[in-house]
Amino acid sequence: MYYTIALLAIGGFLTLLLAVWILARTRWFIGLVAGTLGLSILLLSAILVLATVRLFQYEPIESSALLGTLTLSMRESDEFEVSLTRNRNMDRYEVTGDSWRVRGTLLSIPAFLVFGERQDYFVVNRLEGRFRLLEQELNTERSEVAAPWYNRVADHALSLVFASESLHTPLLPLADEAIFTLEYRARALRLQAVNAPAQEAMERDR
Question: Which of 4, 8, 150, 155 is the most buried (most CB within 10 A)?
Answer without folding.
Answer: 155
